[in-house]
User: Fold this.
Amino acid sequence: MTHIPNELGALKNSLIEMGSLVINQLVKTRAAMENFDQELVEEISRSERRVDAYELKINLDCENILALFCPVAHDLRFVLAALKINYNLERIGDYAFNISTVLRDLDKPIDPECLKEMHITEMFKISLSMLQIMAKAFENDDALAARQVFKKDNKLDEIKMKSNSIAADLIIRKPEETLTILSLLSVIRKLERVGDQTKNMAEELIFHLEAKVLRHAKKKS
Assistant:
């Protein structure tokens, strides 16, 4: 009797746990920025090591399943998707940590007007919404729900495209906030990448459930 259902179930649970940890990292990062909380930055740094440990464990679990059970069809697609989702989650954890470290280079709290006009708060809200949708979709094997993240990712892309002109205008009006504004441009780039990684996870889940590869699908003319 094969033990592969148990192994796949444990692998899925590990990914769900890692996803919750990564979401929590991004929640803490938003709070650290809004409240200029240096202690929270240190907490995020410690949690980052847990994210890295999860990635190593999940990679090893995937390798063991492939080596010991030689999964095929649906099971094989799940293991391949798990490997990529694991990587995506680890990268999101990195982005959350890197965003939080921006605070270390600032000597004062971030101007709330800069956060608002550069749509930082909105980007955090969208990114977290995408991750939460993706977490539920993964847990429930719901490809339809996973597709919801694509439209939200487009909104993050739109904000990023407009960010340079918004930053330039803010620097003219608030030259004393130049360092903060430039730092926020870096935050915008990383939050946009959080959206990209979440979109990648949605594509992998759909691949697992429907055997479709969306990233390389040709557009209809």
